[in-house]
Write a structure and sequence with these properties.
Strand content: 15-25%
Radius of gyration: 20 Å
Distance between the termini: 35 Å
Structural class: alpha+beta
Number of helices: 10
Largest sheet: 7 strands, mixed
Number of strands: 13
Order of helices and strands: HHEEEHEHEEEHHHEHEHHEEEE
Strand order of the largest sheet: 8-10-7-11-9-12-13
Length: 320
Amino acid sequence: MANGQEPTLRQLGEFPTIDRLVTNRHQPAGVSVGPGDDAAVVGAPDGRVVVTTDMLVQDRHFRLDWSTPSDIGRKAIAQNAADIEAMGARPTAFVVGFGAPPDTAVAHVQALSDGMWQEAGGLGAGIVGGDLVSSPQWVVSVTALGDLAGRAPVLRSGARAGSVIAVAGELGRSAAGFHLWHNAIGGFDDLRRRHLVPVPPYGQGIAAAEAGAQAMSDVSDGLLADLGHIAVASGVVMELSGDALRADVAAVAAAADAAGVDPWQLVLSGGEDHALVGCFPGPVPPGWRVIGAVADGAAEVRVDGRHWAGPSGWQSFDEV
């Protein structure tokens, strides 16, 4: 028994563990068949399904000495839900694959599942199935499904010159938290927490779509990087206003100073806040703030008319 009381995955076994994880879970109305069969059945009233998938690997995307299993579960659901939101859709269901060493305490896997259900349940969504395997380290893979409710999806390729660039949510907080954790700097509890569990602006993807958003992305790799994807897909220039970002810079300035990093780098290049950034031809909806404008020209992102010389954001195969 792990810690003398709780069984490990090896001791309890795959299917008894799965039974323990799914017992007494309540699926939303759109799920007609949940865990227990070879596949789930989820309603698609729109006739189309928005689908995304993302993975988290131990010591690359999370650390067990920083995060609780519940934190990791919430983060895994939140980052996938943000991708669904960025298409202008509502998250409806999640499928989870989890790998861990055989000596992992089942209680830790239960806590991971509880965190996932906490985040998904707050969205009115369910976890409808998945897989459990042996792995040398923790790996969490989530596939998310979403409903457009008759709306057109908001793509990266629709931005047009003359539109405004706007953000829902906050920037730089997760990156600030990472540097605090990485440098073992105490205090700044909110920023440290924001790195462990992001806070996407749930509901704002639909609000943006209904307000006529031309293009949208969640800020997972960094504001410059994710706006760069929109710029390339749309063939436009993204002109950011430094003044419009000063509140974000001020919010992380003290932590940046403590960690010895540039607060502007945190805001412009830091990822994993899972804010939403979009382009609008007219007024932006409540909860959004204008941070720049779209212009004609070769695809790029500029800050106050200049190219940003620092890093633009996360790259999956760079060193951490």
